[in-house]
Fold this sequence. Notes:
Number of strands: 11
Structural class: mainly alpha
Shape: elongated
Largest sheet: 3 strands, mixed
Strand content: 5-15%
Number of helices: 15
Amino acid sequence: MAASNRSRDGRDSILEPLCFPDPPSAPSAPSAPSPLGDAPLLCLFCSDSAPLDLLLKHLLLEHKLVIADVKLVADLPKYVSYWRRRFLEQPLTDFCSVIKTNSDGPLEKQENYFLLCDVLPEDRILREKLQQKRLEEVLEQQQQERDDGGFRRVCMFCSDEFTGNRSALLNHMAREHSFSIGLPDNIVFCDQFLDTLQGKLDSLQCLYCEKTFRDKTTLKDHMRKKAHRRINASNRLYDRFYVINYLELGKSWEEVQSEDDRELLDEDDDWSDWRAHPVSAVCLFCDDQSETMEQIYAHMKEAHGFDLHHLRTELNLRFYQQVKLVNFIRRQIHQSRCYGCQQTFESRDAVLRHIEVEGHAMKLPDAETWNQPQYYFPTYENDGLLCSLCDSDGDEDVPVIGEDDSELRALKQSGDLSQLLRSRGSCS
């Protein structure tokens, strides 16, 4: 195998395949919530420190060490610190694979290089622990963003300002400007994400094709006409803002989504003892969940004064109308807005207090407000409440009335239709 050799004139020559890894600025899967940048890292063997790319070169040239898949290490400083300590305790050969270069050449030109990779169980366990720790930190950060009531930001596409929960702004951009970056629950480090997008727009750069334009008007027209009001999924810069990229070691969202669970099935597996878990329904107003529809309907009636059965009967709502109504109410509450009077509040708790005090639980706006096509799509994935809806007629059989074709026969014998049929017959 080829490697790095020092020539007689003192210059370093780097040959494949022991090449330097690419800098971690745009990895295939995010290794940290933010790029490592130029932060110096301490060498595993000596007192030298350098940024990542220079450190890898230093390890290769001075210590003949190669670290495999550096870009997949979730916390590189902790990873380096761990192995620096372990290399002081035991010889390098106890952990690394030895690669002999120029094995067919003269003995004086042969050199040993060391490969540190996750084939070693200790290294694999370390990487998995760092990945798990990173996932915990990301989920904690996401929860802090959910609970943060001090958020304040102006929409990137209009002058509307949003405060409180970040989801109000994200839903506004998706609903009013057809610009969606995904469900709010899938986003993390939302402020940095929005800063990144805003910076591109301020630089007159299209968020999808990433072309630069001469002014904002031209950019706006381009994004509208080309349907480029979306981000470029192939740009790895955005990966660190989605929780899915932190779930599995070394896997990006594309790899997670492309996995086919059917490949994991064995035809000889016995599924006779498998039992499906009941679908949980979530209250329209709070986070209460129940495994039966009767319980969730009773909860909404007792705790919030909302009776969906009564509305369905009183307004004679068909199935699709109930779906739109449920999704409309969910989105209004999620956006801290009273669906009855359309008044906006600082938080969901505030709007729930308003609905309770003002008695707006059973107050609906005009049908044209909620009976809109956009509310036919579920607000939450696998919304169990939608699965329980039925037509106002219940399970009663709907009579089928046969078509009366007497008028149709009379129409064929006279008038314009008769002339048309005769003319077609003569032509044939």
